[in-house]
From TrEMBL:
Catalytic residues (UniProt): K190
GO cellular component, as recorded: cytosol
NCBIfam families the UniProt entry points to: PRK00094.1-2, PRK00094.1-4
Family per record: Belongs to the NAD-dependent glycerol-3-phosphate dehydrogenase family.
Gene this chain is encoded by: gpsA
PROSITE patterns: NAD_G3PDH (PS00957)
Name of this protein: Glycerol-3-phosphate dehydrogenase [NAD(P)+]
Glycerol-3-phosphate dehydrogenase NAD-dependent N-terminal domain: residues covered: 2-159
EC number: 1.1.1.94
């Protein structure tokens, strides 16, 4: 089998390295100089350090050449670039697509699976199936061969098993699901809650506060997911609780790092300029609030994160406003 991994950031590269231990993989990126540098180094020092590429991993900046001979396409581009990529892929061929990007599209508030339906069409009415892989997974640990378990959900059982078998080897364990919406929601919204956890940690509020943020953040994620038809059980699994806990506590979490730096008084522009990687939660927070308002659901933690990032609110004031909310029954 031949696999094309589209997007040569940290996670895309880690997935490509993992898959190349079993299959021939082409790792694609638009940036010609980035591809050239990786060809020379046989690694991705810009995003993933000096982990050497397997012999089965080739590099390409021509999209047609990358996906033409492939049996499966994995998208790991940022959510902001996902729609454009899908339009291009739709012209090239009708291969199944699994994406690993997480977030809501800026401007539309669409989740990746909704963008896919918008561009590729409803899979129930066509032969173009797609899916999502998500869960507690840091790129730096996967490439070190450390145990990693994630969820893969797809629009057909055939694609789900086909793609799961591709990933399920070595240190990676795959659990399957048919809840594409729920897995997409979990992957997107946990990044916003991780920013809140980073703010709390950065201000020295301790373990109690972090645990509260994770728990009540999960309630917000579940509320949002169920309102768009996701399965509630998904949020107690790897794509929900698992990914949330990791992103709120792990040392490699970019979104938690954003929160830590916000707590230091740095502006969001300064933080993003110095981060060197995409932190999807920054762009997702505002879109979630806008969509949550349309759905008529409360998301107080997400709202305060959005206020800090986009409204210039002081982190300490945001925390105080959360603490002073009226007493409510826990749901």
């Amino acid at each position: 089998m031949k696999v094309a991994v589209l997007g040569a950031g940290a996670w895309g590269t880690a997935l490509a390295i993992h898959l190349a231990k079993k299959y021939h993989v082409t790792l694609w990126a638009r940036n010609r100089s980035h591809i050239s540098g990786m060809k020379k180094a046989r690694s991705n020092p810009k995003y993933l350090g000096n982990f050497l590429f397997p012999e089965n991993l080739s590099l390409e900046n021509d999209l047609h050449a990358a996906v033409g001979p492939s049996d499966l396409i994995i998208s790991a581009v940022p959510t902001s670039a996902f729609r454009k990529l899908l339009f291009e892929l739709n012209v090239i061929n009708k291969l199944p697509i699994i994406w690993a990007n997480k977030g809501l599209e800026v401007g539309t508030g669409m989740l990746p699976h909704e963008v896919a339906i918008d561009v590729l069409g409803d899979p129930s009415l066509s032969s173009r199936d797609f899916g999502v892989i998500s869960g507690p997974s840091f790129a730096a640990e996967l490439v070190r061969g450390l145990p990693t378990a994630v969820t893969l959900a797809a629009t057909s059982e055939e694609l789900c098993q086909f793609a799961a078998n591709a990933f399920h080897h070595g240190c990676m364990r795959i659990y399957t699901s048919n809840d594409v919406a729920g897995v997409s929601v979990g992957g997107a919204l946990k990044n916003v809650i991780a920013i809140a956890a980073g703010i709390s940690d950065g201000m020295g509020f301790g373990n109690n506060a972090r645990a509260a943020i994770i728990t009540r953040g999960l309630a917000e994620i579940s509320r949002f997911g169920e309102s768009i038809g996701a399965n509630a059980d998904t949020f107690s699994g790897l794509a929900g609780t698992g990914d949330l806990v990791l992103t709120c506590t792990g040392e490699y979490s970019r979104n938690r790092e954003v929160g830590l730096r916000l707590a230091q008084g740095r502006t969001i522009n300064e933080i993003l300029d110095g981060l060197g990687h995409v932190a999807e939660g920054v762009f997702t927070a505002k879109e979630v609030i806008n969509r949550g308002a349309l759905l008529g659901i409360e998301m107080p933690i997400t709202f305060q994160v959005s206020q800090v990032i986009h409204g210039g609110k002081a982190p300490r004031d945001a925390v105080q406003d959360l603490l002073s909310r009226e007493i409510k029954a826990e749901h």
